[in-house]
Amino acid sequence: MAEPAIRIENLTVTHGRHPAVHHLSGSVAAGSLTAVIGPNGAGKTTLLRAIAGLHPLSGGRITLSGRVALLPQAAAVDRAFPIACRDVVLFGLWQRIGAFARVQAADMARAEEALAAVGLAGFARPDAQGVWRGFDVDYCRAVAIAIFNDANRVRFVPTTAQQRFPAIQSGEVDVLIRNTTWTLTRDVSLGLDFTGINFYDGQGFMVRTSLGVRRASELNGATICVQPGTTTERNLTDWARANRIQFTPVVIERLEEVVQAYLAGRCDAYTVDVSALAAGRLSLSNPDDYVILPEVISKEPLGPWVRQGDDQWFDIVRWTIYALIEAEELGAEAAAQHYFRKPAARLTPAEAARLAVLLPAPKRYGARLGSGYLESRTQTILARMGAVRVP
């Protein structure tokens, strides 16, 4: 049996005369994901600090098979200090290259790939300063403007494909805007409502150029990386069965781990929505070494989800989306000009009539949507968000 990464024997840790951890024993297997759960004051942080060697032991023993690092929930740091997220990622090189060695171009490329893995480039990803940006992020900020008149009154909670629905169902998040496909099964069985389509996508495949594969039909016998608990996994199975293609799935939950497994050569192909493939390919240091195959094997209407039972919140999210879509179609600048009663010579009479229906609607019906701000918020959304960007 393999030696555990952490072994705890009869551990006691105190704060002064008060025990925080009392006669605790247990072990953590190497390579495992372990959660320490308990109410505030139960001693969770004290235990972690003791394991990391940051808090003295009052009794017992902790045995480690390697090094341990502790990332605290908060730290007393100078927020104005000029350090970017990329710099923090590069800290991971210290053990290999030392504290004062020059960072090479290949190291910078690896740091960029790691940052890309945090979120989907083009949809939701923190920039070098840690500010979330992207298509989905813009929709979140638009909803914040509709409610609070403040695009920054939003907290972004990254989730995995399997964690996203429990996060919205439990109330951890108020709205799910995360490349999530609208399906009949989800609509009728999850206790959620789909508010509207903001992006049409489809599933595809990416392979190494050196593999010599030009079409998905040539993937017979291949190993394919895919995320579990997604329409992607089911689409892959259905497509392979319909086309009599045999394949071996490599199923990994987190998107960044799927990408890393693919880059490490654990699978011949990687399948997900084409937008995600394109974003991932562009974030690589050697994008020309990979090709996205031409076949699109599914239809993926994406958009925000909310919990059932709150019709006012549903309407606010839905009509924020529709206002942005209409403004994008007609030109956000022209829409804003029209709303602020400035000349809009480029508008046809038909377009002006459509704007006349769209833009005053929040003022007439905002109170019914449950938001006093929303009575005049369409003009603010259009003015502050501008054109909706396509990733």
Model description:
The chain is an alpha+beta fold. The protein has 15 helices and 14 strands. The strands form five sheets. Strands 10-9-11-8-12 form a five-stranded mixed beta sheet, sandwiched between helices. It has a three-stranded antiparallel beta sheet with strand order 2-1-3, with helices on one face. A two-stranded antiparallel sheet has the order 4-5. Helix 4 (105-118) packs antiparallel against helix 9 (255-263), helix 5 (135-148) packs antiparallel against helix 15 (377-385) and helix 11 packs across helix 12. The longest helix is centred in the C-terminal third of the chain and has 20 residues, at 311-330. Mean pLDDT is 76; it is low at 340-345, 359-376 and 386-391.
Order of helices and strands: EEHEHHHEEHHHEEEEHEHEHEEEHHHHH
Query: What is the CATH class designation of the largest domain?
Result: Alpha Beta
| N-end to C-end Cα span | 48 Å
Task: Note the total helix count.
Answer: 15
Query: Strands of the biggest beta sheet: in what spatial order?
Result: 10-9-11-8-12
The global form is globular
What is the radius of gyration?
Answer: 25 Å
Number of domains: 4
The CATH architecture of the largest domain can be named as 3-Layer(aba) Sandwich
Uncertain regions: pLDDT < 50 for 5+ in a row?
340-345, 359-376, 386-391
By secondary-structure content and strand pairing, the structural class works out as alpha+beta
> What is the name of the CATH topology of the largest domain?
D-Maltodextrin-Binding Protein, domain 2
- Sheet of most strands: 5 strands, mixed
Strand % is 15-25%
Number of strands: 14
Question: How would you state the average pLDDT, rounded?
Answer: 76
The helix content, as a percent range, equals: 25-40%
